[in-house]
């Protein structure tokens, strides 16, 4: 029997992954004086979705190391990555502070699922690789803090997704068996984390994650949802089957 629904945040409840991708793309384009275009970063960003900030920056630095180091001559690798983070966060925080922009990226149907399962007395959890500060900003903007029993961010774990640590910690806090938990994710790294924790996983894909999720074939087709309008019915059908 399913007793708890665990939601990822970025790309699942709100399309902040799109904003994150754009903030990295803008920062790297500026830092490389256009040698790396925003489109190049956006086209490659899908494989970094769901990783910790350190994981994303490490991946992007390795991918664009040559132009980054050429345009930031004299800085070592660590300093270049710190510069990426600083530049990108300034852009991203401006985006998060734009309430009109942020609200236009809310995931309507996924948020409706959260409200439905909460009303139906399931335990509800947020398990995100976002940093606490950014996660809090988004949670407040969506008005969902009171609908969550547990909120875990990157500050609460050592190893980020795709490692299952965050989901193991959720399980311990809920005092439930893995099979009693249902995870809603959007990214391949998130899916891997949920499955490695032994939990049931649904993927609600988006343009950044869709191709990688389908190509990996980690989930049966019934658990991969490309049209979020189908999410509530598919999840509740599964819950009924598990009773």
TrEMBL record:
Cofactor entry: Mg(2+)
Keywords for the protein's UniProt record, in alphabetical order: Carbohydrate metabolism, Magnesium, Metal-binding
Pfam family, one: Hydrolase
Origin: domain of life: Bacteria
Matching InterPro entries: Beta-PGM-like, HAD-like_sf, HAD-SF_hydro_IA, HAD_sf, PGP-like_dom2
Record field: transmembrane: none
Alphabetized GO MF terms: catalytic activity; metal ion binding
SUPFAM superfamilies: HAD-like
Listed NCBIfam families: HAD-SF-IA-v1 (TIGR01549), HAD-SF-IA-v3 (TIGR01509)
PANTHER family: 6-PHOSPHOGLUCONATE PHOSPHATASE, HEXITOL PHOSPHATASE B
Record-stated family: Belongs to the HAD-like hydrolase superfamily. CbbY/CbbZ/Gph/YieH family.
Protein name stated in the entry: Haloacid dehalogenase superfamily, subfamily IA, variant 3 with third motif having DD or ED/haloacid dehalogenase superfamily, subfamily IA, variant 1 with third motif having Dx(3-4)D or Dx(3-4)E
Gene source species: Arenibacter troitsensis
